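Risk register update: the risk of archive-format incompatibility is retired. Evidence:
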Amino acid sequence: MKSNVKDDVCYAQPKTLAERVYIANDFIKRYKYPVPFGIDDMSNAAEGAYSAWPERLYVIDEGGHIAYRGGNGPFKYDPKEVRSWLAARYGEVKHDEAKPVDSKPGESKPAASPPADAKPSEASPRS
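Archived output:
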């Protein structure tokens, strides 16, 4: 999609679960993302169950249960509240300085496509 190029999104909308897994694995490797996460199935069941309309923040615990459910947005949508809740439960997090992206301003990355034999490996789909 041409509109995605200006936002530096480098993938076409995935049409299969294997494509979603490929994109997630690329994200993990590209940004050295240390936190595990799930990938919605192609029916978007998780998106429907945890829809952000109106805006809402959730924390899902290690057992897959809702541990924190924020208020409906926009008036009770409070990122500071969930950050405080996470700090109380897991401890404060120190953030490193933001690192610059490898591309130059105004330069877009080429679109990436999953190989035909893309296999789910690091990221795992959830339904």
